[in-house]
């Protein structure tokens, strides 16, 4: 779990099989995730939130090589909980603040 002091920038290089959990109480309002390598299309980086929408549970989003996602809240509110995982033979970068 990553606990970040407000106004601090969190950076992380993900290696295969590594996982990072971002918690709402950590205070981030912005996160960007980049998949660098994806095991020739067989892996990637997954991003999974915990919020539902009208009774629908979330699914993981899989980023493949050179794909990225940026999530930012309005007015600097905290992000909800996220889990970011590098699948087999996959690597990536995370920047959060």
Could you outline the blueprint of secondary structure elements for this entry?
Layout (H helix, E strand, L loop, with lengths): L9 E5 L4 E4 L7 E9 L6 E5 L11 E3 L4 E5 L9 E5 L3 E7 L1
Antiparallel strand pairs: 1-8, 2-7, 3-6, 3-8, 4-5, 4-7
Written overview of the protein:
By secondary structure, the protein is mostly beta strands. Helix content is 0%, strand content 44%. It has no helices and eight strands. The strands form two sheets. It has a four-stranded antiparallel sheet, with no helix packed on it. A four-stranded antiparallel sheet has the order 2-7-4-5, with no helix packed on it.
Descriptive labels:
four-stranded antiparallel β-sheet; 0% helix; 97 residues; Jelly Rolls; mainly beta
């Amino acid at each position: 779990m990553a606990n970040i002091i407000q106004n601090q920038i969190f950076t992380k290089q993900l290696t295969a099989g590594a996982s990072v959990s971002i918690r709402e109480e950590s205070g981030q309002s912005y996160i960007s995730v980049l998949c660098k390598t994806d095991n020739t299309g067989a892996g990637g980086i997954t991003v999974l939130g915990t919020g539902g929408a009208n009774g629908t549970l979330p699914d993981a989003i899989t980023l493949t090589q050179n794909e990225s996602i940026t999530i930012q809240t309005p007015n600097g509110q905290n992000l909800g909980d996220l889990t970011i995982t590098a699948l087999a033979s996959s690597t990536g970068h995370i920047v959060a603040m």
